[in-house]
Specification:
globular; mainly alpha; 496 residues
């Protein structure tokens, strides 16, 4: 299996590389947009983005799961790939058109105060353009063109910063900044069409007969509703804050803290996602021990990266936030320190999602997501009225934790035996990170706090390798996978 290991490692590394490139633009958006808009206007901007994200999840119809599971089985048959692509594109676009028509009718008739009417054409435009480009990029994902698929996140982050910031500076209007998100989707649409042009052109443009499409559709639909619940867990808390507090002021610090969790956590989660096409092939060939080895190694490494980020936050988060965002956002540090606790259950949930897709058991996906949403909702009702953004953070932690526990129960014969290295990494990380709260309370000068942070990170990395929680052989395996030819030998991760 030398080629399988080499190709899988290359896939993961390439996907991770593209996603790392988006971080400078995420950092710019994190700093510049809130500071330009101020706490109240940024709260409105973040509130709209939360609604948009939920609507996009509601209209996704499981495209990634459909293409990730069924395109590898077509073995490069261009005609059958094209038929599948066009069928999903047709039915998906139709569903979005019907959904947006219903939403528009409801907003026009009832005029909810929490959703200004000028936002409606923005929402509709993004959803329609997003469905077209999203289907194209999901098709690239199913064909294992991970570099192009992953580049979308880089481009989206870059264009979001450029368009939203530029239009707000020009007009000083949140609505104008939101139109920048529309321009973003249009640029991605043209790029997606260009990269999948062979699937768009040539041959008749009739959709698949529904009976032929149904098996793929039902598979995607079984993951569709759970994915909506997952996005609801991850992105809906600003809606609870707006409803329970009556304003946008507490939305801003929670959104900024949640961005820290989501951008890092989803980056690491997408490392798991890039494995799905390869692991689906392993599952078909009954190579389950290899699936376990890959996931055990990836979980430990992702846990180490997450804990390093949390360590940096606890040591340097407050002075960095005060410098970059100003005193208006000072409470963001305490909110982020709470929500960062969700890193561990979030990664376990990503692993559980992987197993749900590879083993075609969407019921576990649905139950875990539903349990997480229920826990988060109860926590939001109990803690937001008194604790504001910090109470919302605790509600999010509760939701992610319950979701992870359900996955561990659903795959109790498999997942728990992957956890010991990961849990050891997490325990070591918390032990070294938590003194950062003391450093912050002591208000050390920034130079000394930075030195303490660097020393803590170095100690963390040294102990990870000294205790063999991470191994240099895995780094060497990755290097050989990236540099060697397809016939070069390669050991599986953590084969020892």
């Amino acid at each position: 299996m030398p080629y399988d290991n080499r190709h899988t490692l290359r896939t993961v590394a390439l996907g991770a590389f593209w996603r790392l490139l988006r971080y400078p633009f995420l950092a710019l958006s994190f700093v510049v947009i809130p500071r330009l808009m101020g706490r109240e206007l940024y709260g409105q901007y973040a509130y709209f983005v939360s609604i948009l994200t939920l609507c996009e999840a509601f209209t996704s119809l499981g495209n990634l799961q459909i293409f990730g599971r069924f395109l590898p089985e077509l073995h490069g048959d261009a005609d059958r790939e094209k038929r599948l692509f066009r069928g999903i594109l047709f039915y998906g676009t139709l569903s979005v058109a019907l959904f947006t028509a219903g939403v528009a009718l409801w907003i026009v008739v009832f005029r909810p105060s929490a959703f200004p009417l000028p936002w409606l054409p923005i929402l509709i435009s993004i959803l329609l353009a997003g469905k077209l480009q999203g289907t194209s990029f999901a098709f690239l994902y199913g064909r294992n063109e991970i570099g192009r698929f992953s580049s979308r996140e880089l481009l989206r982050s870059a264009f979001t910063f450029v368009f939203a910031t530029g239009l707000f500076l020009w007009t000083e209007s949140v609505t104008a900044a939101l139109w920048g998100l529309v321009l973003n989707e249009i640029v991605l649409l043209f790029l997606g069409i260009f990269w999948t042009r062979n699937a768009w052109k040539g041959g008749p443009w009739f959709p698949l007969p529904f009976r032929e499409f149904l098996s793929c559709f039902l598979f995607g639909a079984t993951f569709y509703l759970p994915s909506v619940l997952v996005f609801f867990l991850q992105r809906s808390v600003p809606l609870f804050i707006r409803f329970l507090t009556g304003g946008y002021e507490q939305v801003a610090p929670f959104d900024l803290a949640n961005q820290f969790l989501m951008t890092t956590g989803l980056f690491l989660g997408l490392v798991f996602t890039t494995l799905v096409p390869a692991l689906s092939r392993f599952e078909t060939e009954q190579r389950r021990e290899e699936i376990a080895r890959w996931n055990r190694a990836v979980l430990a490494w992702c846990g180490a990266v997450a804990m390093a980020g949390y360590l940096f936050l606890l040591y340097l988060g407050r002075p960095v936030l005060m410098t970059l965002l100003g005193p208006e956002f000072a409470d963001t540090y305490d909110v982020a320190a709470v929500i960062g606790l969700a890193f561990l259950p979030l990664l376990i949930s990503h692993l559980g999602m992987n197993y749900s897709v590879v083993r075609k058991t969407p019921a576990s996906y649905a139950i875990a997501a539903l349990a997480g949403v229920a826990a988060m909702t109860v926590g939001a009702v109990l803690w937001i009225p008194q604790g504001g953004a910090k109470g919302a953070a605790w509600a999010a932690v509760a939701g992610h934790t319950v979701s992870a526990l359900v996955y561990l129960m659903a795959f109790r014969s498999t997942l728990p035996r992957m956890l010991p290295p990961f849990l050891a990494v997490a325990a070591l990380g918390f032990a070294i990170a938590w003194p950062g709260r003391w450093v912050t309370k002591m208000e050390w000068p920034f130079f000394y706090a930075t030195g303490a942070c660097i020393a803590a990170l170095a100690l963390f990395g040294l102990l990870l390798f000294a205790f063999r929680l991470l191994q240099f052989r895995e780094v060497a395996a990755l290097r050989r996978a990236l540099l060697s030819g397809s016939r070069s030998p390669l050991l599986p991760p953590s084969a020892s």
